[in-house]
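stage 2 :: seqdesign
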């Protein structure tokens, strides 16, 4: 098995990836909070970690991949109240939409997809254990983590407690109502009291809800264990979310929560972070109206996951030509049975071997999909340039196989016509038909009507002209 190196946020550098137990990899990525439609930033996070888990499997690791769904959160409750529906219904609706987006983008299902509300008992037990160990304290109906009790706090985000206290002043002003409940402004909630009319659960500290950070610590522990191999997420989660997960889990277990902490960068629009608060996001559903799932996936993967992506419609359009280049080359692929009957030239075999090595080298170097994709393009050019049909077949099969490692479907959509384009084409055909009739070319007019009927389009003539409908 070739060596993989990953950039570990915890160390601030690349290091060799060595799982704790043989070739078993336990991997957890923080999933969405389901209260709105997913945008390209969400798509990036899902696609990047999907490719990482796909590649680890391809490289021979036995991966258990967990991605959670946060279905209890103040944002969910607020939105549900605005819409006059229950928070359960709202989070369920957006969970369905999230799954739909994931399926369209060819993101594989994780091995486990825990929803926070299914693990409340584990979160309560986790909180109680932290209180018992002296790392948390009850304050009225809330429970807070005592940050000063965990000496390594700040190690992921590379900030010490003093720096954090300065940063916490702004937050303390914003959360003045909580100030009297906390020992220190940097302490964070494990459990928050709630009114019994709201979404919540009974607990030893009264009716309330778990804090967001606690959810992941409790679910990681329950599903994967106290120490995992890879904990992944967007770079905006480093602080405070992942820092707090580390504090909770490591204070309680006395061992590392995860060996490798991996973070993907943002999608920016005009160099601003793409976020709902900026109102500049395009939902995944918006983008899929115009672009194929492979185009979106290729657009995301042609940047290394730790570099920000500047999003413009023009840059996405540019990627369409890239996917066409790959699809044209891959159209020479043949079935495994057919391939068995052909012998590629020594030159083609050598080219395929070189490609495979360079692809692996790129992916082993912190999952550099940008370089892996440029290798795919080179292979595609080689397929176009060779005149030997059996070499084209052989190299196209290699291209197809490796494109799929990156989760590209390679579904040939070059001749797919969407409804809008289809409608306009039929309107055009009917215009040509009425022109044929005007010049008394009834044979052409009848041929058009007959052919349209055969493909399920009914033409209706009236004094105002012809109209059509699908039968
Ligand atoms: Zn998380």
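stage 2 :: out
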């Amino acid at each position: 098995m070739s060596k993989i190196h990953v950039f570990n946020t915890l160390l601030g550098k690349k290091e060799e990836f060595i799982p704790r137990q043989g070739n078993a990899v336990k991997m957890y990525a923080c999933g969405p909070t389901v209260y709105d439609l997913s945008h390209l930033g969400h798509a990036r996070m899902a696609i990047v970690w999907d490719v990482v888990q796909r590649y680890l499997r391809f490289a021979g690791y036995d991966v258990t991949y967990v991605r959670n769904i946060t279905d209890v959160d103040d944002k969910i409750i607020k939105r549900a109240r605005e819409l006059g529906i229950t928070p359960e219904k709202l989070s369920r609706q957006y969970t369905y939409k999230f799954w739909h987006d994931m399926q369209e983008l060819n993101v594989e299902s994780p091995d486990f997809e825990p929803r926070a509300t299914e693990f409340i008992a584990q979160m309560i037990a986790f909180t109680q254990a932290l209180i018992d160990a002296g790392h948390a304290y009850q304050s009225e109906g809330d429970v807070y983590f005592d940050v000063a009790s965990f000496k390594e706090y700040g190690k992921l985000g590379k900030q010490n407690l003093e720096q954090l206290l300065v940063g916490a002043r702004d937050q303390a002003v914003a959360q003045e109502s909580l100030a009297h409940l906390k020992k220190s402004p940097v302490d964070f909630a494990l459990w928050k009291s709630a009114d019994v009319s709201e979404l919540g659960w009974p607990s030893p500290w009264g009716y309330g809800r778990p804090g967001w950070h606690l959810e992941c610590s409790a679910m990681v522990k329950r599903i994967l264990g106290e120490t995992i191999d890879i904990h992944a997420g967007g770079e905006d989660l480093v602080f405070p979310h992942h820092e707090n997960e580390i504090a909770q889990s490591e204070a309680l277990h006395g061992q590392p929560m995860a060996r490798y902490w991996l973070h993907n960068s943002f999608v920016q629009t005009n160099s601003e972070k793409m976020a709902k608060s900026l109102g500049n996001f395009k939902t995944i559903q918006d983008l899929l109206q115009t672009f194929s799932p492979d185009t979106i996936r290729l657009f995301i993967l042609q940047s290394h996951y730790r570099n920000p992506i500047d999003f413009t419609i023009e840059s996405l359009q540019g990627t369409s030509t890239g996917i066409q280049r790959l699809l044209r080359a891959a159209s020479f692929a043949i079935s495994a049975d057919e391939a068995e009957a052909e012998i590629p030239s020594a030159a083609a075999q050598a080219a395929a071997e070189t490609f495979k090595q360079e692809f692996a080298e790129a992916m082993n170097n912190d999952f550099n999909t940008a370089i892996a994709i440029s290798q795919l393009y080179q292979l595609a050019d080689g397929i176009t340039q060779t005149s030997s049909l059996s070499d084209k077949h052989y190299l196209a099969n290699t291209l197809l196989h490796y494109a799929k490692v990156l989760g590209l479907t390679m579904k040939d959509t070059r001749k797919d016509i969407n409804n809008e384009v289809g409608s306009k084409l039929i309107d055009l055909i009917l215009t040509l038909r009425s022109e044929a009739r005007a010049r008394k070319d009834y044979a052409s007019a009848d041929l058009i009507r007959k052919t349209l009927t055969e493909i399920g389009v009914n033409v209706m003539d009236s004094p105002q002209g012809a109209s059509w409908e699908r039968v």
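stage 3 :: structure notes
- The chain has 17 helices and 15 strands.
- Residues 30, 216, 241 surround zinc ion (CB under 6 Å).
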